[in-house]
Amino acid sequence: MANTKSAIKRIRTSEKRRVRNRSVRSRVRSVLKTARTAAATTPGEDARVAVLLAIRTLDKAVTKGVVHRNTAARKKSALARSLNTAR
Predict the structure, then answer these.
(1) Helical spans, DSSP H, in 42-68
(2) The pTM is what?
(3) Count of CB atoms within 10 A of residue 66's CB?
(4) Domains contained in the chain, CATH given
């Protein structure tokens, strides 16, 4: 159990960050899944819009520090590749 003021504050802040990170990570996963299925099944404008939304969401997650920038770059590259091969 925490017994100093700084440790108690650290617990509070880490809990806030955990909750925020969890929602951001969940949003990233769901948008990525939507974009992957759209790129694989429906080539066209809908797939392109889904991929662009996924890229924006990844960039926002990087800005918030939830996802590492190289991980986001790798996922964005894979999405762009899947979109281009579907055409």
Answers:
(1) 45-64
(2) 0.84
(3) 19
(4) 5-86 (1.20.58.110)
Angle formed at CA 67 by CA 66 and CA 71, multiple of 5 degrees: 175
The amino acid sitting at 78 is: A
- The secondary structure of residue 4, as a DSSP letter, is S
Closest of 74, 29, 31 to residue 53, by C-alpha: 31
Is there a contact between 57 and 17 (Cβ–Cβ < 8 Å)? no
DSSP three-state, residue 24 = helix
Sign of CA dihedral 27, 30, 35, 36: positive
Q: Please, are residues 66 and 28 in contact by the beta-carbon 8 Å criterion?
A: yes
Cα(43)–Cα(82) distance, integer angstroms? 10
Chain segment 64-74, per-residue pLDDT in tens: 999 999 999 99
